[in-house]
Write the structure tokens for this entry.
Amino acid sequence: MKDQIRKLEPHLDDASTRPLRLVVAALILRTGLSATEVLICQRKPDQPMSLKWEFPGGKIEPGESSEAALARELNEELGINAKIGRRVAQVRHTYRNGGAIGLEFFVVDEFDGTLENKIFNDMRWTPLSALPDYDFLAADLGLIRDLSDGKLLG
């Protein structure tokens, strides 16, 4: 799997003049009563791609490592100090509007603090197998399929 992961660098997308936005997201995991659960978050109605579900995270700032960006974003969005684990997936997605993102997903199974919803419409713990029941962002759909099929985290 490590051979399949390549470093994404900011550059201009061939299809447009927009730069590739580098984004990180967390798979915050916990052991539920009958299955592993992951924290999912829903965008607010006034945000782009409103009410879509996503994993918490955000943009990487210039000069910031992926792990540092994710730790910062999780603190800003959820009020936690997360221990960023291994990277489990990397995706490049081009939206219909021509914007492209390079997205890295990391496991987080340890954090200090109490989860606090600072920016989302809703957030909830859900079993990995139930992820396809939610209306996720298009860039997350391949990962959702793999997670619900029991891949990546084994």
The first helix runs from residue 66 to 78. The chain has two helices and nine strands.
